[in-house]
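Hi W.,

Here's what went into the run:
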Amino acid sequence: MKTVSFSLALFAVAVSTRLALSEPNKPVKTTPLKQVLIDVDTNLGIKNWSVSADGRGTDHRWSITKDVLHGGRQEGVDRIRVDNGVLSFDVIPTRGMNIWDVDCGDLSLGWDSPVKEVVHPQFVNLRERGGLGWLEGFGGWMCRCGLASNGAPGEDRVRSNTGSIVPVQLTLHGKVNYLPARSVTVEVTDDDPPVLKVRGVIDETMMFGTQLRLTAEISTVVGSKSLTLSDTITNLSADEQEFQTLYHTNFGSPLLEGGSKFLAPAARVTPRDPRAAEGPLSKWNEYLPPTPGYNEQVYFLKLLGDEQNRTEIMLENAAGTRGVSLLYSLTDLPHTTLWKNTAPVANGYVTGLEPATNFPNLREFERENGRVPRLKKGESHHATITFTIHTDAKGVGEARSRIHGLQGDTRVQIDEAPVPGLSP
Amino acid sequence: MKTVSFSLALFAVAVSTRLALSEPNKPVKTTPLKQVLIDVDTNLGIKNWSVSADGRGTDHRWSITKDVLHGGRQEGVDRIRVDNGVLSFDVIPTRGMNIWDVDCGDLSLGWDSPVKEVVHPQFVNLRERGGLGWLEGFGGWMCRCGLASNGAPGEDRVRSNTGSIVPVQLTLHGKVNYLPARSVTVEVTDDDPPVLKVRGVIDETMMFGTQLRLTAEISTVVGSKSLTLSDTITNLSADEQEFQTLYHTNFGSPLLEGGSKFLAPAARVTPRDPRAAEGPLSKWNEYLPPTPGYNEQVYFLKLLGDEQNRTEIMLENAAGTRGVSLLYSLTDLPHTTLWKNTAPVANGYVTGLEPATNFPNLREFERENGRVPRLKKGESHHATITFTIHTDAKGVGEARSRIHGLQGDTRVQIDEAPVPGLSP
Amino acid sequence: MKTVSFSLALFAVAVSTRLALSEPNKPVKTTPLKQVLIDVDTNLGIKNWSVSADGRGTDHRWSITKDVLHGGRQEGVDRIRVDNGVLSFDVIPTRGMNIWDVDCGDLSLGWDSPVKEVVHPQFVNLRERGGLGWLEGFGGWMCRCGLASNGAPGEDRVRSNTGSIVPVQLTLHGKVNYLPARSVTVEVTDDDPPVLKVRGVIDETMMFGTQLRLTAEISTVVGSKSLTLSDTITNLSADEQEFQTLYHTNFGSPLLEGGSKFLAPAARVTPRDPRAAEGPLSKWNEYLPPTPGYNEQVYFLKLLGDEQNRTEIMLENAAGTRGVSLLYSLTDLPHTTLWKNTAPVANGYVTGLEPATNFPNLREFERENGRVPRLKKGESHHATITFTIHTDAKGVGEARSRIHGLQGDTRVQIDEAPVPGLSP
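Here's what came out:
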C-alpha cells in the first residue's frame, strides 16, 4: 500500500461514476489505448468501464467491458469481457486472471459445472473436505493451478520462520485460482487489426513463505479465432524458490460428446491409477457420452514437439467438424495431463487438457521425481499457450495433420499400469 | 454465470440508484407485485429498495425494505425487513435466508447473543475451534442447519473425486447458515389482505460433492401474527444424495424467563447426555432464570401428531400470557430437539426449538440409526413450519388446548438416561 | 443488529455521497468535532470522508481522511489517514485498528513486507501453513496480537458448549489483527493545539467462547511527533476470562540498518531458543545489515521502570540521529519481546519491539508460567503506549539518557541459553 492523496481517490470515484452512469458511454477515440482498471499502488478499483470500436472509423467490431458480478457466491467478483468481434471470453481478475465463458459464434467452450457461479474467494475455504475446498468454486474454462504448489492435497515440508523444517498440509491445486489481481491493465494496440490485451498481476506472497508474482497477459487479435495466454512467474524472494503451474483447461458439451477425440503427438501415455488403467487403454483418447457411475480417468502424457520443442494438442468433436487446439512449448510446460470425467451432465461432464510444469501429484512426490522447477532470486519462468478454435472440418483437419506431423514415425507407448515415478 | 450485456448492468445500477436516492420513494402502485432483488443469472444485486402500502388506497399497513448492513463483521450483509403492519422480521439472504429480529408490538422474539452482529460469511471459518466456527456468527431467531449435514462436528466418510471413500471433518451444523442466496424475489399478492412473500434460492454445491439446492419461501399475511416458512431441498445431482435440515429457532427474554414452559405432545423425551439427565427430569420442559454455571441441557423428543401427522409445539412465558407456537408435519420433520441454555444473559440466555429430519448428532451416527434421509436424482424434500405469536392468555390457552388434544391419553415416557441409538 | 429506518440509511448514503463528491469539500467548521464513521448499531458505514484545518482560522495544519482501499487482497479495507501537520499515519479499522504507514517528514516508520497490500480478512485463512496463516497479511507498523491468545500456534484446551474441556488448535497471534471495527469515531478537541483522535471498538466474540471487547483510541497532538495508543480490553462474559495482548511494532529501513541499536533499561535478557543464543549475545541489542541466510533471533526481556513502573525503550539508527521510543507501564504490559529479523530486504528486513502481557509462546505454556492474565465479569484491562519520533541527535540523546537513568546501577543479566519457564 502506498499513501494516496485524497484528490486521487476522488478522481477514481469520479471516473468510475462517469463511466458507469454516462449514457451513452463515450470512450476515448484514440488508439492505441491503455487503461488501468485496478491498481493497488494507486488505490484504483474501477467497477464499470467499457470501450469499443464504435466511432473509431474502423471495419472491426470489438469491445472490452468491465463489470462486477452480483448475487450468491459471486458477489463482488470483477469480470472483464473481451469481444474481438468473432471470439469473446471473460477474464476474471478476482479469480487468478482465469478465463470463464468462451464463445465463438454458436460454439461455447467451457462446461456446465455443478457450481453455477463464479465463486468469490471469500466463500471458499481451501481446507474443506480434506483439502478439496478448491472444488467449491471449480468452474469456467481455464484456471491455473499453482503457484507454490498444485496437484493432490496432502502433507509436504517447508521452512518455517525459525528456519526449521515443518510439515504443512497442502490443499488441492494451490491458491492462485482464488487470488485477486493487484493490478489490471487493458490495452488496444494500433495494429490493423488491433490486438486486445488484458494484463494482470497477482501476488502469492506471505512473510516467511511463498513470494511469487504472476504476470498474466491474455491477448487476442480482433477478428481472429485465437487467444494467447502469456504468463510470467517471478521469484520475489532473496532465496531460491520452487513453483508449479498447471493450466486446467476444461471442455464440456458441445465439443465434448460421445465419440469426441483428444489428439496429441505422444511418445508415452501412462494411466495415473488402476481406474485409468481400466481404460480401455486402446481408447484412452476417445470419449464416452455422459455415463452414470463413471469415475474420473487421468493419463500422464509424454508429448513430442518440433525442433523448437513446441507441441500442439487438440480436442475435436465426434464429427471432426469442431475443435480447439493448444500450442505451447514443452520446454516451458514439459508435462501434460489428460483428465477424463465423462460423468452425467448434472455431475459435471468434462475433460481437462492440462499443460504444466509437472504432473498433478502431491508436490513432495513431484519434487522427488524431479518435476518441481526452481527459480533463483529475481528469476522468471515464462509460458505461452495459444488456443485456436476450429469451426469447420477443414480447420480441424489441418490441426490434425499438424499433430500427425509432430507424431511422425514415433510409436506411442501406452503403459498398461501406473508407473513408479509417475504416480505415487 | 451467464453473460450479461453492459446495458443490463447499467440498468440495474440505475434502478438501484433511483430507488435509493429518490425522495420520496415512489413505488409502483400495482398489486400483485413481484420484484427480483438478487439474481445470479441476470447479474442483479439491488442494494436498496422499498415498497409499502402507501398510496395503494388500502386500509392495510405494510412494507418491505431491502438494505445492506454496515460495520464490523456485518459489512455487506443483505437484509430484507418485512413488516405486515402487526408483525415484522428480517430475512437475511446472505445468511441462508435466515430470520433475524422478529417484533410483534412490544414483544421481540430472538435472543441476545454474545455475537451482536449479523456476521458476514467472509469473517467466519467453520473449522475454527475444533469445527465449532459456526458459533462465531450464531445469533438471530431462526437459522437452518444443513444441508449436507448438521449436528455435532467430527469425522464422517464421503466419496471423493476418484470414487474412493475418504474421511472428512464435518463442522458444526453444516454450511447453509453461511451461504448467500443466488436469487431473491419479493412478492405481494392481490389477496385481501395481501400476502407478503420473500423467496430465496441457495446452492450448496461443489464439484465431486454436495449438490443440493434450497428454495426457501417466507410468507406472512398482512395484519396477522403468523409467518410461514416453506422450504424445498432439491437434489441437483445425477446420483442419490443424503441431506439434513434442522430449524434452529431461538428464544431469549422476554418469552424465556424463569418459569417459562415448553409444551409439546410428546410420546417420549430422552436426555442427550448425562448432563441433560441431571434434569431434574420432572422439569425437563420448564425453564430456569439466567443461572450462573448452567451448562446446556438437550432433549431428544418423539412427538405426536394428528391424523395428518401434523404437530404443534409452543414456548410460553411464566404467566402464560405470551407464547409462540410452531406447526409442522412430523412426516417432513420427524425429529425435534429441545435445547435449554439458561446461562447468564451475558453468555446467551436462550432456548432452541429444533424441528428437523434428524437429531443433531454426528451425521455418521444419525445415518447408522436411520435418520439421514436420501433424495433421488431430481427429487425434492418439502417442509413447512408456521410460527404463530400469541400475545394474550387466550391465544396461549387455545394453543395449549390444541397441544393437550394432540397428547390425548398418551403418557409421555421420560427416559432417565441417554438411550443407545439416540445418543452416541 | 438493530433495526434502522430506511430514512436513516438514506441519510448515511447521502452524507457519504456529499462528502465524497462535493468539490471543494466543505467540512463543518465547528470545533470540537466528533464524527461517527462506522457503527453497527445504527448501520452506518461512511466510505469517504475528510476534515481538515482549512477555513478554521488556525495556524495548525491537520487533516483526517477516510477512504477505502482497492485492488488485489486489499479490496474493501477501510483506512483513516491522520495527519497532524508533522506526523501522519494510517489507522486500519478493518484490521484490528492497527497502524500502517507512519511518516514524519522524510522519515517513514514501518517496513517493506513481502506482503505489499493491507490484506483484507476475507483473503486470509489463519489455519493455513500449520496455523501460520496470520503471516499472509503481515505488514504495517503496529499490529496487535490477541485478544483471546497470541504467540505460537498449537494446541490448547478450552471449555466447550457442553462444559467439557476440549482441545483446540490456536493459530499464530490470535484473531484481532483480522477483526474489523464495529464502531469508529473521529474526534478533534478544541485544545490549542487540538488533539486528533480515532476510536474504534472491536468484538472478539462467539457463542460458547471468547467474549472480549477492545476499545482502541489512537491520538496525536497537532504539530507533535508523538502518537498515543490507549487500549481497553473488557470481559463481556458473565464468567472470568483469560486474555492476551501484544503490540507487534515493526521497523525496517531507514531506522533499521547495520549498526542500529535497541535501547532498554533491562534487568535480564534471555534468548528464546538456541538460535537466539548464538547471538553473539554481547550484541543482542545491535543490528546487522540485511543478511542472506539470517534466521530470526528473539529475546525475552525483563525491563526496569520508574517509581510508577513506567519504562521507555528505543530503536535508534546507526548514527544516533533518528529514533523512536515507546513509553508504557510495566504494570499493564510486564513482558517485552525483541524480534530481530535482519534478513535480506526482499524477505522482510525488520525488527519488532513487542510490549505485551506475556511472551509470545503457546498460550498453554504461558498460563503454566503465570503470564496469562484474567478478567472478572465486566472487568477491563488498560494499556497505553506513547510513541515518540526523534528526528535529530539531540532527541535521540535525551531518550538515551532517560533510558540510562532507568537502568541506573542495575547490571543486566544476559542468559547464555534459553531458560525453563521462559521458553518451552
